[in-house]
Amino acid sequence: MRTTSTRMPAPAPGMTSGAASGVTLARTSVRRAAVVLAAAGIAVGLPAAASAETPTPSPGAATVNKAGTSFLTAAGISPGQPVRVGASIGDYLYWSFTAKAGETHHVAATVSLPTAATRQGDSTWTVEVFDGLRRRQACVAGAQTPVAAKAAASVELDCELRQVRSWAEPWSGDPLPGTYYVRLSGSSLPEQELGLPIEVSLVVGVESDGDTKPEGGDLKQPLAMPVEPGKVVVEDPTLSTPPAAAAGDEDDGWFDWVRWPDLSSRWYWTIGGGILAAVAGVVGFALTRPRNRVS
Fold first, then answer.
1. Of 194, 189, 135, nearest to 162 (Cα)?
2. Least CB-packed of 25, 28, 35, 191 within 10 Å?
3. pLDDT at position 244, please?
4. Buried b (16+ CB within 10 A) or exposed e, 155-164
5. By C-alpha distance, which of 63, 186, 184 is closest to 114?
6. Where is this region: Disordered (predicted)?
7. Domain assignments of the chain as residue spans, ordered by start
């Protein structure tokens, strides 16, 4: 059996074994201290990066005292406008606001809960943001789904969105200019607490770097127009009236008896390709078929 041994580096000339071991211990201590400091820096830096500045209401902005119960009845608010509304545990509350290209929005909400004596346990609350196509937008920072303890008097929710782009690919879910919807609800609630009164405070903050086309493109029109509940949309009567035919565009009557089917161009290309393939097959067979020889 062969045994392996680890050789220690030989001490420098003129250095005793005790001094060499002391140098080795000093180097090890320095390395450990560097690792500890690096880990502490990462631990301190992560919360700082994850935390987002809480938005504050704009001075002089009127307070909104209502909320919708669906996307269609969402209460319209403006960035910086405070919201303060009374509701019940189990309600779904909706608000809508307009976002422009180059803006970054931050939604902050506070839910004042009933007293601990009337509550049965912990509860989970959620704030979500959807764009005009009802696509749920991701939050890059903030406590989007916090848990409120039974003895907690309130719970705070935060959601910082990505910067609104000026254009995007059709398959992507990037935020585009248009109407956005905020939904606040309880995702996990004790059944005995449903219906208890709560008070919700909400504000949407906005930051803009002044660049209205951060991606170098431009969206032809907003992704979804602002919703105005209860307003009847009147269509333009000129859109339903077909344009009058010009004097030279009248049918000359030569092919009035022909009823062309209303098919897409794909059908005509398919039929034409089939005819060409049949002709090519006949011609190829005629050229390659064996001929009878007369002896």
1. 135
2. 191
3. 56
4. bbbbbbbebb
5. 186
6. 1-21
7. 75-208
